[in-house]
Amino acid sequence: MTAAPGAAGAAVDGMPAAIAALRANGLRVSSARRIVLEALFAAAGPATAEELAAGPGLIPRSDLASTYRNLETLEAIGLVRHLHFGQGAGRYVLRRGEESGYVSCRHCGAYEPMGAATVAALSDTVRDSTGYDAAFASFSVIGLCAACRADDA
Ligand SMILES: [Zn+2]
Fold first, then answer.
1. What is the pTM of this model?
2. How many Å lie between the centroid of ligand 1 and the Cα of residue 152?
3. Measuring CA to CA, which of 1, 111, 135, 152 is 20 to 30 A from 8?
4. 143: CA distance to ligand 1 center in Å?
5. Taking a C-beta distance cutoff of 8 angstroms, is the pair 16, 24 a contact?
């Protein structure tokens, strides 16, 4: 885990809560940080830094390095988590209470949240058969989506 101590449970449900969390961690609410947060709230799901930086005209593309730095800062204080969906760039998503696991397609890169009940059932199965407490928060389960399976058939 890369989250800072005490970061767990720092779920945010809107910009005011996110800004309060920055201040509570002694961080300046710079316009760059505010813009990255707005892009995260506007994103439909876990987004790459490039997608966030390219957001609806919010950030000039030249600010990709600063987007990465700000995402790292937000991750360090537990506002954002970083996901790996097989190959391709990592994706970032706001922590919003319930932590969803994801399944992603190794062929086309599509992904879907698995939902808490599915993740709990998977965790129980893995624990029962191996004794390991499996975590699905940072890495997706990788497979082949229905559309790619249909193309294969
Ligand atoms: Zn696919």
1. 0.77
2. 10
3. 111
4. 8
5. no
CA–CA separation, 153 and 142 (whole Å): 19
Cα 26 to middle of ligand 1, angstroms: 42
Question: How far apart are the CA of 49 and the centre of ligand 1, in A?
Answer: 22
Tokens representing 43 are 């994103």
Distance 135 CA to ligand 1 centre (A): 23
pLDDT tens per residue, range 75-93: 999 999 998 887 778 899 9
